[in-house]
Amino acid sequence: LINGDKEDETCLRKYRKRCMQDMHQRLSFGPKYGYLSELQSGEQFLETIEKERKTTTIIVHIYEDGVKGCDLLNSSLTCLAAEYCMVRFCKIKASNTGAEDRFSSDVLPTLLVYRGGELVGNFISVTEQFN
Question: What whole-number distance in Å separates Cα of residue 89 and Cα of residue 60?
Fold first, then answer.
């Protein structure tokens, strides 16, 4: 009886592990990214937002070289992108957006969060809020 209990426990552990793997596989459908991509133009920015799957969250960092906090935020987003591969992380220089007058250095770095083509969050002057 003692050996039977150990065998039952081993079988039960294997079954649980297989169920967890199956569940994880079912929940992790869709594209995987895992990197911080550079958008080159305002057109590419709009295309990325409009053509992405409706269930994908897109985080866009608007930055400019030489602005305090932008390089550090790019590094942080690179790490987050590797950890959260189901989220699409992008960055674009403010001067490449076509709306650089809206993104002066006093509002950078800026994070925009999109889902289903809609803006669901915007964080202006991130370094002032999060230090």
Answer: 6
